[in-house]
Amino acid sequence: MKKIILSMLLLVTILLTGCAEKEQVVNLYTSRHYDADQELLDQFTEETGITVNVVKDEGSTLITRMEAEGEDTLADLFITSDAANLEVAKSSGLLQSIENEVLNENIPNNLRDDEGYWFGLTMRARVIVYSLDRVSPDELSTYEDLVNDKWVGKILIRSASNIYNQSLLSSFVATKGYEEAKEWASVIKNNMARTPEGNDRAQAIAVAAGIGDIAIMNTYYIGKMIYSDDAEQTSAVEKVGVFFPNQDNGGTHVNISGIGLTKHAKNKDNAIKLMEYLTEEDAQSIYASANYEYPVNPNVEPSELLKSWGEFETQDINLSLLGEFNKDAVAIFEEVNWDN
Ligand code: FE
Questions:
Q1: Containing domain of residue 48, as a range?
Q2: pLDDT tens digit string along 239-296?
């Protein structure tokens, strides 16, 4: 009898293990580093029973990793917080194209790849942040005007190695050409308050500390600073205002975080389910309220904070150009010695 019970227990164990092996999964490589993302993935798992395994790293590092892994890659999905890296992943043959009604309906044309290789999830603007004490918004107008002599020694902006800056400059190469973009970068370099250091938030903190008067940074970091647990951030952000440049002249530079299905995805159905999920109204509201980003789904309103800054004109260029001109932007930053 004991033997029968033991063998039955063994059988049950084997069956359970078998089931566990058939656990539904999707593997995500992502460069996004925000709490809101984990919240969304947990919610997806709860609703669908699909476990999401996450590998987090810099966008360019993940691209190199997928290239090295080739068809053995575990990645089913690639998320990165910049259109340039999505375009690099596409042109390196790491993504596959999909035609999907839900995605096409939830995401406007201009925020996804024409050929279905990547899809925007959130939008952010790269704006001018200014000292409320020392600068009046009347003095601000365009990115181009930052070369004005009145800004000598006053501008704060992070390193050239940062993809957000590379994409900003790529957008200028795309719209004005290489030489004009280079001229802009070299004068900005001369107008800097200090050698680039720190992340976006560090620039606003430096404005508040009087190191410079204006900074270039992404909108959602203002939200993150306002609701931060860190007193240095909350007190700094009270001393700055947000300005959307180029409202009568080309629009404010925007970028996206986006997602692509990898070429060698082994869990394609689950991956597409997650892609759809992240563009639906619920998920889009979480991106908007918890990470202060602009939703891509037009049925979802931005958060109250973002609405309080008002509507703005966005730079009207195809976002794939940010990837196309990335090499030029990197070369220009080198040539003008941006980081030294
Ligand atoms: Fe960021």
A1: 2-123+256-302
A2: 999 999 999 999 999 999 999 999 999 999 999 999 999 999 999 999 999 899 999 9
pTM of the predicted protein model: 0.87
Please tell me the distance from the alpha carbon of residue 14 to that of residue 20, in angstroms, as a whole number.
10
Sign, Cα dihedral of 180, 181, 183, 187 = positive
Residue 114 φ/ψ region, left for φ over 0, alpha for ψ in the -120 to 50 degree band, beta for the rest: alpha
CA 81 to centroid of ligand 1, rounded, Å? 7
pLDDT number for residue 325: 96
| 195/227 same-domain check | yes
Total tally of structural domains belonging to the chain: 2
Cα of 164 vs centre of ligand 1, distance in Å, is 8
Calculate how far, in angstroms, residue 133's C-alpha sits from the geometric centre of ligand 1. 27
Rounded average pLDDT over 13-29: 72
For residues 28 and 59, membership in a common domain is answered with: yes
Same domain, 206 and 266: no
Examine the domain organization and report whether 236 and 166 are in the same domain.
yes
Q: What are phi and psi of 119, to 5 degrees?
A: -135, 130
CA of 56 to the centre of ligand 1 (A): 13
Would the pLDDT of 1 be above 90?
Answer: no
